[in-house]
Specification:
Radius of gyration: 23 Å
InterPro entries: Metalloenz_LuxS/M16 (IPR011249), MPP/UQCRC_Complex (IPR050361), Pept_M16_N (IPR011765), Peptidase_M16_C (IPR007863)
Domain Peptidase M16 N-terminal: 39-158
Domain Peptidase M16 C-terminal: 189-363
Number of helices: 18
CATH class of the largest domain: Alpha Beta
CATH superfamily of the largest domain: Metalloenzyme, LuxS/M16 peptidase-like
Order of helices and strands: EEEHHEEHHHHHEHEEHHEEHHHHHHHEHE
Number of strands: 12
Structural class: alpha+beta
CATH architecture of the largest domain: 2-Layer Sandwich
Shape: globular
Largest sheet: 6 strands, mixed
Protein name: Insulinase family protein
């Protein structure tokens, strides 16, 4: 990989315009830190991102720890408190953010090129030497606890968490990234410091810089700011984070007694983020439920009026992922909506995808793809995901080729290979007293109480 200021190809049409990821350089410092530099001189801005290979999968019994740590890093460093850092960024119109996801924790900043000498050192401080001020940490934790309680009042915010918990069972991929009320309330300053010390280390992290800079000078700055970062003990090893459990048709019925709607997800096992079929599957999913004119949205919203929207998606992780159809409907229409969703889904096998439909989806996907990676921040996010989720640049560079090469025959083979058809898994969030008998049509039913803490059966 080389340095370069190659521009994005912003036009991707059915006539075959190509999208290529701009050139970037990847190096490693002697302490094991990965450094990814992509220079772009169109605007005088710089996006910098620290990516750590640790997230909810590393929480263990302390659900929400990675997420809390990622946000708590923004509370100040050992040298500068939160107020001083906030003022430094705000005064210059810069942004600073952080957080923990399923498999990565990130700290990111965006600022003008002229402000790099002032803000890069502060960025380096909070990544390596966060203060984790106890008073600020208490306030942050309280806000997160309130957010979790409020989320349970909106089924669409939490249905996906129940779904992943259902599919992955006790495996790390089932861990709720935001934690639970009880788990968050139990987390202390010492837990956050321990997580940071265990996983925030140069041989488990990358620094990504995208924007208007000179590579040689930026390398010197990164080496000066991060070259003395040291790790103690062996680096964390990746383990098996789990595979979806789909041995028989199951339904998790999450009871919300005051619900007037039923929110549902249907599906099963998906793919890993680096699966070679990742790109063509985006096209096929576009037909099924990936755009407003998809089969699911047409049938459940436009033609029947059963819902305001329906979609489907593959949600991949580094090792495994899930596929789901999702929507919601008025309580009395629950059975009709579920049956129509399943009938529409089965069109993938019953009728297949004809060439005209496939060509339309291909054109749509090709038009949507490049605009996702136009800004420096978007590109920095992509490079961070590539580092954290083991994605090679070939997947991006060959995007147009893989879309263009999709035929109805290949589409059928991919549908058979990747879209779950048997032993479908279902989460229903709604008024159990009204939909209990309906739920039993679709598999073995397990009932949960939405007011219980957490996202597993037996929670209290």
């Amino acid at each position: 990989m080389m340095t370069g200021g190659a521009m994005l190809c912003a036009l991707a049409t059915a006539h075959g315009a190509q999208f290529k990821l701009p050139q970037f350089e990847t190096t490693k410092l002697p302490n094991g830190l990965t450094v990814m530099l992509m220079e772009r001189h169109e605007v005088p801005l710089i996006s910098v991102r620290a990516v750590v290979r640790a997230g909810a999968v590393n929480d263990g019994p302390q659900a929400g720890l990675a997420n809390l740590t990622g946000d708590a890093i923004l509370l100040g460093s050992t040298k500068h408190d939160k107020k001083a850092i906030d003022e430094a960024f705000d005064f210059r119109g810069a942004t600073l953010a952080g957080g923990g996801a399923t498999e990565q924790t990130t700290v990111q900043a965006n600022f003008a090129r002229a402000d790099a000498p002032a803000l890069l050192p502060l960025f380096a401080e909070i990544v390596q030497q966060p203060g984790f001020d106890n008073a600020e940490l208490d306030k942050l934790r309280a806000r997160k606890v309130s957010g979790l309680k409020q989320a349970k009042e909106s089924p669409r915010q939490v249905a996906g968490i129940y779904y992943r918990s259902m599919l992955f069972g006790d495996a790390p991929y089932a861990n709720p990234p935001g934690g639970t009320v009880a788990s968050l309330q139990a987390l202390k300053q010492a837990d956050v410091k321990s997580f940071h010390g265990r996983y925030f280390r140069p041989d488990n992290a990358a620094i990504v810089v995208v924007g208007d800079f000179q590579p040689a000078e930026m390398k010197r700055q990164i080496e000066a700011l991060f070259g003395q970062w040291r790790a103690e003990g062996p680096a964390p090893q990746r383990v098996d984070y789990g595979k979806p459990v789909t041995g028989k048709p199951r339904v998790w019925l999450v009871d919300k007694p005051d619900a007037i709607e039923t929110t549902f997800l249907i599906g099963g096992a998906g793919i890993a983020r680096n699966d070679p079929d990742y790109v063509p599957l985006q096209v096929l999913n576009t037909v099924l439920g990936g755009r407003f004119t998809s089969w699911l949205n047409d049938e459940l919203r436009v033609n029947s009026g059963l819902t305001y929207g329906a979609n489907s998606a593959f949600a991949p992780n580094a090792q495994a992922g899930v596929f789901s159809i999702s929507s919601f409907t008025a309580l009395p229409k629950t059975e009709a909506a579920l049956d129509l969703a399943l009938k529409t889904y089965n069109r993938l096998w019953d009728k297949g995808i004809d060439k005209a439909t496939l060509d339309s989806a291909k054109a749509y996907v090709k038009g949507q793809f490049p605009p996702r990676f136009e800004t420096g921040d978007q590109l920095a996010s992509l490079l961070g995901d590539m580092f954290a989720l083991n994605v090679e640049r070939a997947q991006i560079d060959n995007f147009m080729r893989d879309v263009d090469g999709l035929t109805p025959e290949k589409a059928k083979a991919l549908v058979d290979r990747h879209f779950p058809r048997k032993n479908l898994q279902m989460v229903l969030v709604g008024k159990a007293a009204e939909i209990r008998k309906i739920a039993a049509k679709y598999g073995d039913v397990t009932e949960l109480d939405i007011s219980a803490d957490g996202f597993k059966p037996g929670a209290k």
